Amino acid sequence: MNRKISAFIILFSTVLLLSSCLKDDEDTTTYYHDTAITSFSVGTLKSLDKKTSSGAAASVNCSSYKFYIDQANHLIYNVDSLPYRVDASKVVASISTKNSGVLGLKSLTSDSVLYYSGTDSVDFTKPRTFYVYAPDYSAYSTYQVKVNVHQQDGDVFKWQEIGTVSEFTSLNTMKAVVNGAKIYVFGTVGNQLHIYSSAIEDGAKWQEIETSLPASVAQNVVAYDGNLYTLNRGQLIKSEDAKNWQSVSSVTLDHLVAAGTLRLFGVSAGKLMQSRDGGKSWETDAQSGEAALPENYTGYAAVAALTNDSTETVMVVGTKDSVVVWNKISEYSQNSENQEWDKVNAQFLYDKGNSRLKVSEYPKQMIITRYADGAIGLASDGYFYYTENGGLHWLRSSSVEAPVQIQSVAALTKDEKNFLWLVDGTTGKIWKGRHNNQGWAIKN
């Protein structure tokens, strides 16, 4: 980086002159006048925070981060930012040019253009301007390169206390559901149902919705296709706002337990059921083995497959002496087969040092909701657990902790901006929070 481009041109011209004297008159060299940068990537960078066992800066492999080249505007940038706290001041970039064009890099402090070698380290903490010259220096183009680095640690989770609703402290049971732009809390006091709502963008001001529906509605409510669904004395009913309800069909369901992207799931006489038409008709679903279903249902999550947009894993969680998990691979593509429900031999794990151990005593209850690429649950032992494999392994979260000790009644759900909402029935407090990287997903 200590050779100016003018000096390089002189050297390059001298080489050409000597070469032409040594070659036969029949030898010719073809030059191209169009110039462009055709690819850009970075490799291994150093961390500003993490250290190796010897105390040296840890290496971070950034080669998988894609850089886009806008040839119309001559801009190069990465949409997916590099990891938090990588050292962008010392970056060795791999750059390809059209027709073997020669690269130059403009100084940060002057208009000087320095010859760029593929082994040079570049300070990308600010946007940089690259020049690409035609091999005969008859033309050049400039590109502005911006290397984006996350300004937040994506693995950090923060709770924000939103408000307190004193009425929540009197509820015996509680379930939170997000539908559209609102969050609802369905709860019971004895045999009386209470419904509260708040705007997702608020969360501090809540309105109680008058209702004559029975208390059993609370634990059967799910959100599906822009509506709230629940059971009411042999009827499946739905509503957009929890105020105006309409009948969908007469059913023999004992429980409405889950909602997927295109299907509703329930339980009738110990058998799992499904509806493919929004609850108008129901059929017995495929179910492996004779294992008993949960006695009480405490939550569900429908998690989309990362590799197939027409497949998701539906998990249903309940209790029967301890936490019980059932799951099903639900496929929606044409001619796909209906998969069975399976009782999962769920394991609760935690990390200790470099080891992953089983929890000595499994929790008795857990409320869950979809989150990130899996599902997260708040268990009766006071810990949050996370799964990405359909509920088989639940790993105690090292980043999400309950903001208060949950003593009895609580509700957990997630909104469309990836915020988790936690409602505590003991204090009446409401919190919401998310990992920083879940906010990035919204922005991208």
Identify the overall geometry. elongated
Structural class: mainly beta
Determine the N-to-C terminus distance. Answer: 35 Å
The helix content is under 10%
Question: What is the number of domains?
Answer: 2
Report the CATH C-level class of the largest domain: Mainly Beta
Strand order of the largest sheet: 4-5-10-9-7-8
Tally of helical runs: 2
Radius of gyration: 30 Å
| Main sheet specs | 6 strands, mixed
Instruction: From the 3D structure, determine the CATH topology of the largest domain.
Output: Neuraminidase
CATH architecture assignment of the largest domain = 6 Propeller
Which regions are unreliable across 5 or more consecutive residues at pLDDT < 50?
1-25
What is the strand tally? Answer: 36
Q: Approximately how much beta-strand content do the residues carry? A: over 45%
The CATH homologous superfamily name of the largest domain equals: TolB, C-terminal domain
The average pLDDT score comes to: 91
Task: Describe the 3D structure.
With 444 residues, the chain is mostly beta strands. It folds into two domains: 5-23 and 31-146, Immunoglobulin-like (Sandwich); 157-443, Neuraminidase. It is 6% helix and 47% strand. It contains two helices and 36 strands. The protein has a six-stranded mixed β-sheet, with no helix packed on it. Strands 29-28-33-32-31-30 form a six-stranded mixed β-sheet, with no helix packed on it. Strands 11-36-35-34 form a four-stranded antiparallel β-sheet. The longest helix is centred in the N-terminal third of the chain and has 18 residues, at 5-22. The model is unreliable at 1-25 (pLDDT under 50).
